[in-house]
C-alpha cells in the first residue's frame, strides 16, 4: 500500500505546524502536508517521524 517512503526534513518543524489529519485507512493515518497542502503527497507519522506517502488523496480500504 505504501512504498518508497522518504523521510521529511525538519521533523520538529512539521510537528510544530500540526498537520491536519485526513483519515485512517488500514491502520495508517494520513495527514495533509502542513506547508504544501494538496500540492504534495499526503504524509504519515510512523514512530515519531514524518514520511511522504505515495498518495495524493486518501486511499480506499483494501
Question: Averaged pLDDT, please?
Answer: 82
Task: Compute the number of structural domains.
Answer: 1
Distance separating the two termini:
9 Å
Q: Helicity level, as a percent range? A: under 10%
- In the predicted model, the low-confidence regions spanning at least 5 consecutive residues are 1-5
Would you list the SSEs in sequence order as H and E? HEEEE
- Biggest sheet details: 4 strands, antiparallel
Number of β-strand runs: 4
The helix-and-strand class reads mainly beta
List the helices and strands and how they pair.
Elements: H1 11-16, E1 21-25, E2 28-31, E3 43-46, E4 49-52
Antiparallel strand pairs: 1-2, 2-3, 3-4
Structure notes:
The protein is mostly beta strands. It has one domain (1-21, 29-53). 10% of the residues lie in helices and 27% in strands. It contains 1 helix and 4 strands; from the N terminus they run H-E-E-E-E. It has one helix at residues 11-16, and strands spanning 21-25, 28-31, 43-46, 49-52. The chain has a 4-stranded antiparallel sheet with strand order 1-2-3-4, with no helix packed on it. The termini are close together.
Write a brief structural summary.
With 62 residues, the chain is mainly beta. The protein is 10% helix and 27% strand. The N terminus is likely disordered.
Amino acid at each position: 500500500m505504501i512504498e518508497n517512503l522518504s523521510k521529511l526534513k525538519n521533523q520538529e518543524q512539521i510537528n510544530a505546524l500540526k498537520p491536519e489529519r485526513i483519515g485512517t485507512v488500514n491502520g495508517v493515518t494520513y495527514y495533509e502536508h502542513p506547508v504544501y497542502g494538496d500540492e504534495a503527497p499526503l504524509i504519515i507519522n510512523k514512530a515519531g517521524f514524518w514520511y511522504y506517502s505515495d498518495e495524493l488523496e486518501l486511499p480506499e480500504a483494501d
